[in-house]
């Protein structure tokens, strides 16, 4: 089940914090609860991805993006992700999530999200996100104009551009494998 109570708590908490720009880092604190666990008694990998929503909502609230989305009647979507899981998040562990927008191209915003257990990074995700309207993806030029931001992206790090390039040659739609 989606963590709606956590979502509302994250949004409420973000509203009480100082504003950020879209390129700043939003830091949020969380805890691994028993309903987050898988059969190995660690946070389920799917739950980790769901928790990332909370970090992106927090950044969107603090950066004023949520108000713009409501005004324009746009939505937020994830259009791709690559992840690294490196440390188990055990029951009742406190962890910190850091969310930042790295930059953008003509269609997508690239978000880096990390989860930290103390000084150790437990998870790193790179997400391709976009704004949508009833017709599909809203161009970043249009969305940044509505947001009132400079449409020039900071240079994307080489590792981000390498992922973009690799994903561009990935076949779509994928071949549908037959039964064995």
TrEMBL record:
Domain of life (superkingdom): Bacteria
SUPFAM superfamilies (alphabetical): Thioesterase/thiol ester dehydrase-isomerase
CDD domains: 4HBT (cd00586)
InterPro entries: HotDog_dom_sf, THEM6_lcsJ_thioesterase
UniProt xrefs under Gene3D superfamilies: Hotdog Thioesterase
Official protein name in the record: Thioesterase superfamily protein
